[in-house]
What we know:
Elements: H1 2-33, H2 36-56, H3 60-71, H4 82-103, H5 105-110, H6 115-119, H7 123-143, H8 147-170, H9 176-183, H10 187-200, H11 215-249, H12 254-267, H13 272-290, H14 294-321, H15 323-328, H16 338-353, H17 357-363, H18 368-392, H19 394-420, H20 427-443, H21 453-474, H22 479-491
Helix pairs in contact: 1-8, 1-12, 2-4, 2-7, 2-11, 2-12, 3-4, 3-7, 3-11, 4-7, 7-10, 8-9, 8-10, 11-12, 11-18, 11-19, 12-16, 13-14, 14-16, 14-20, 14-21, 16-19, 18-19, 20-21
Amino acid sequence: MGIVKSQAIYNSIFNYLGQVIGYINVIVLFPILLSQEEFGLTRLLASLAIVYAQVSSFGSQRVIIRFFPFFRKGSSEDHNGFLPLVLFNALIGFFIVTFVFWLLKDTLLANQDSELFRSFYLVVPLLTLLTMLSWIFESYLKALLRTSFTSFLNNILLKLLWLSSTLLYYYHWINLEQFVWIYCSVHLVLILFMVGYLWYHGELSLKLNFYYYKWRVLKTLYRYGAYSILDNTNSAMMNNLDKIMIGFLVMDDLKSVAIYAVASHLSGVVIIPSVSINRIMVPLLSQSWRKKQRDKVITMYRQSSEISLVLAGGLFVLIWTNIDGIMQLIDKDYATGVYAILFLMLSRVIDVSFGINGDIILISKHHWFNTVSGGVLVLLMIVFNLIFIPVYGFVGAAFGTLLARTAYNLLRFYFLRKRESLNPFTIKNVYTIGILLIVLLIGSQIHFQSMHFLVEMILKGMVIFLMLAIPMYKLKISEDLNKMLFDALGRIGIKL
C-alpha cells in the first residue's frame, strides 16, 4: 500500500494546485490577456476537440484500465502488444471520425459567423489527435500505477504551458496564428514527457503480438470499447455541449462562449469540497455494496447528500451574497455573465445534493442505467439549448443546463428509489434548505457602506458564514461536519 498512499498524496496536492491555477487562468488572467473573441476561440476549440476525441478513441481510456491486467506480462515491457493494439484502434477511429468531420466542414461553417473560427477550423483535428494520444498514455501510466506523474503533467504543466503561450501572444512575441497553433499543440509536450517516462522505466514497447490477438480476446475488448464510446461521449457532451451550441447558435459566437466559460468555471467553485469528500466515500461504498451491507450504503448515500447540500449550498450563498464584489475582480466585459453564474451554480448545487447516486448506479447491477440517464441528459440539454439559446443567448444555455440537470437527477433518484428502495433525503435536507434560503434573503440586504469592496466582501463573508454555521451546528445537520468544525476550532483554542 506504500506506493498507493504516496501516489494518493501527490495526486491530491497536484489536483488542488491545478484547480487553483485553472481558476486563476480562466477567471482572472485569460480575460485580461486575450480579447473575448480570442478567449472564446480557445474554449470552443477545446470543447469540440474533447467530444471529437471521445468519439474517436474507441473508449481507449476505459479499455486500458479494464484489460491491461489480462495483457500484462511480468516485468517485460511489451505486455503482449497491448499498447500498440490500443493505439491502432484509436488511430483507426480518429481517421474515420476525421473523414466525417471533413465532410461536414461546409455545414458546420455555414452556421458559424466568426471569421476567426473559420480561419482555425483545421486546428480541431490536430488538437483532437494530441488530446486523444495524451489520454491514452495517461491511462497506460495509470494502469502501471504511476499516476502522480500524469497528475502533475495535466494539472500543473499543461495549464502553465497554456498560460505561457498566452503571455507570449499578449507581449507580441508571437502573432495570433502562431499563438493558436502553439496553444493547441501543448499536449505534444505532455505526450513526449509520458513517452520518455515509459521508456526510462522500461515500459515502452510498440512490439506487436499477433499470437495474443485472438478473436475471443479481441471480441470482448471491442464490445467493451463500443460501450465505452457511448458512455464517454455522454460524459464529454454533458460538460461541453452548451459551449459548442452557444458557439453555433449565438450571433456574437465566440464572445458569448468566453463569457459562458468564465461563468462556468466560477460556478464550479461551489462543488469542490463536496466532490473531494464524495471521492473518499466511493471506495467505502463499493466495499459495503459488495459485502451487501445495505445499512452502510444507505448511511453513506444520506451522508453524501447532507454534506454536499451544506457545503455546496453554503458556498452558493456566500458567493451570491457577494456577487457584486466578485464581479469587480473580473474584467468588466464579462459582467453580463452574472445570471449565467446564478443558474450554473444552482445546477451544480442540485447535482451534488442528490448525493452519490451515479456511483451507486455504477457499482450495482444497474450500471447500464448510467449510460441511459447520461443519454437522456444530453438530449434534454440539446432540446433546452435549442429553445433558450436563440432567445436568451448564453444565459439561456445556463438556464437550460439547470433544467436538464434537475430532470437528470430526479430520473436517477426515482430509478434508485424504485429498483433499490434507496432514498438519500431526510428532514435534515429540509432544514438545510430553509437555513440557506433565510440566510440568502438576509445576507442580500447586508451592506457595509463606504468600505473598499474587498473589505466589504471579507466582513460580509464572515457574517454570512456565522449565520450559516451556527444554526446548522445546533441542529446537527451533519454529525461529520460538526466534528470537523469542533476539531478545527479546538486546534486554535476555541471550545464550543
